[in-house]
């Protein structure tokens, strides 16, 4: 392999795949480099759960494929003195030159690099980066962060006609978001949806920030996302996601409406006075006022904000962090709480269409 390329272009191409390569472990601490006859050099990194492939234009004098340590390659290229870089293989070494600087990095056989899975083109569709990013960001916060139930550690993505639906839950709270995607109804999509792992979802949001459109290819085992310059292949969490529809509290009789920013600010303030373990906030809804209360052995806090209430007054306690996280999907001025009693899950939503909503289980606050 022998190529010449721009330093800035190389750094841009290397930075994402090297970020997921294992920093210590053998074959997955490497990047796979492939120079092709069409004037491109490809870089692939993996942690075995995900693969990231990028490419940049290069003057390819000699095609070839090698593996080299991901972190060292990135560090060397980043510190090179000039803008023109030469990469040349010689035996088991990759020679890197720029101006008067020269480095030799040990290489390994490309055949030892893990094989990247592929997806059939009939399972592909295009989605705007804004839409995909919104679905992920509106739900990922509610996914479980422990390993007790691995299937809850990701986002369910399912198809309903021309809508792509995202759901995440840790069993104490649930977030739901849906977006229309043109042509989705014609896609051969897994019947029970797919479960995108937390880390893979985070990698997809990075990809969304780099362009306007994303091509998604989906099977029951993997999802492949590409913006034309970068391709991410993610192994999915296998198994059947819980029936989230059965826990949606559709018949709660009391509806409270508050200003979203006022409510979030008040929760943040009063939760300063609460124990690290409990972090509880009591909400007291009356017909014209919402009172927020918290206390611990060091003191107490209380604040009131305006509310519009349809139904009976109610007192209910919540985890303060869950309340603040529940603001993430919403951007409008008003927020609605659909309540029944202090023991029943509460539905939080912005639009009557319920294209986005959050469900939170209440907590018992002993005061």
Report on the structure:
Helices cover 17% and strands 43% of the residues. The protein is of the alpha+beta class. The chain has three domains: 2-112, DNA Polymerase III, subunit A, domain 2 (DNA Polymerase III, Chain A, domain 2, Roll); 121-245, DNA Polymerase III, Chain A, domain 2 (Roll), CATH 3.10.150; 248-360, DNA Polymerase III, subunit A, domain 2 (DNA Polymerase III, Chain A, domain 2), CATH 3.10.150.10. The strands form three sheets. A 13-stranded antiparallel β-sheet has the order 5-1-7-8-9-6-2-3-4-17-16-15-10. Helix 1 (7-20) runs antiparallel to helix 2 (70-79). The longest helix is centred in the N-terminal third of the chain and has 14 residues, at 7-20. The radius of gyration is 25 Å and the shape is elongated.
Can you name the CATH architecture of the largest domain? Roll
Q: How many helices does DSSP assign?
A: 6
Cα-atom radius of gyration: 25 Å
Q: Approximately how much helix is present in the residues?
A: 10-25%
**Number of separate domains:** 3
Instruction: Kindly report the CATH topology of the largest domain.
Output: DNA Polymerase III, Chain A, domain 2
Which sheet architecture does the biggest sheet show?
13 strands, antiparallel
CATH superfamily of the largest domain: DNA Polymerase III, subunit A, domain 2
Characteristics of this structure?
367 residues, alpha+beta, DNA Polymerase III, Chain A, domain 2, 9-stranded antiparallel beta sheet, 17% helix
């Amino acid at each position: 392999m022998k190529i010449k390329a721009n330093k800035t272009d190389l750094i841009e191409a290397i930075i994402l795949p090297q970020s997921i390569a294992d920093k210590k472990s053998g074959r997955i601490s490497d990047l796979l480099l492939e120079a092709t006859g069409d004037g491109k050099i490809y870089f692939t990194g993996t942690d075995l759960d995900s693969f990231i492939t990028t490419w940049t234009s290069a003057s390819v004098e000699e095609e070839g494929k090698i593996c080299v340590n991901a972190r060292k390659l990135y560090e060397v290229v980043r510190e090179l003195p000039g803008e023109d870089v030469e990469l040349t293989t010689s035996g088991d070494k990759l020679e890197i030159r720029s101006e008067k600087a020269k480095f030799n990095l040990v290489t390994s056989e490309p055949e030892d690099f893990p094989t990247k899975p592929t997806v059939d083109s009939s399972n592909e569709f295009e989605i705007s980066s804004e839409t995909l990013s919104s679905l992920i960001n509106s739900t990922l916060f509610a996914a479980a962060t422990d390993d007790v139930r691995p299937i809850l550690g990701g986002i369910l993505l399912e198809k309903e006609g021309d809508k792509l639906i995202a759901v995440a839950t840790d069993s104490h709270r649930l977030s739901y978001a849906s977006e229309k995607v043109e042509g989705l109804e014609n896609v051969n999509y897994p019947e029970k949806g797919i479960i995108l792992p937390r880390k893979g979802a985070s990698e997809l949001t990075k990809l969304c920030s780099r362009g306007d459109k994303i091509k998604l290819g989906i099977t029951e085992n993997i999802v492949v996302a590409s913006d034309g310059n970068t391709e991410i292949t993610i192994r999915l969490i296998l198994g059947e996601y819980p029936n989230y529809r059965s826990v949606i509290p559709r018949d709660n009789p009391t509806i409270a409406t508050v200003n979203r920013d006022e409510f979030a600010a008040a929760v943040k303030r009063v939760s300063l006075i609460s124990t690290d373990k409990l972090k509880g906030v009591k909400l007291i809804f009356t017909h014209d006022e919402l009172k927020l209360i918290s206390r611990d052995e060091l003191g107490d806090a209380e604040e009131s904000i305006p509310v519009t209430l349809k139904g009976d007054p109610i007192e209910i306690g919540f985890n303060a962090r869950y309340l603040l996280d529940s603001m993430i999907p919403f951007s409008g001025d008003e927020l609605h709480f659909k309540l029944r009693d202090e023991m029943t899950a509460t539905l939080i939503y912005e639009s009557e269409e319920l294209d986005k909503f959050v469900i939170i289980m209440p907590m018992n606050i002993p005061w």
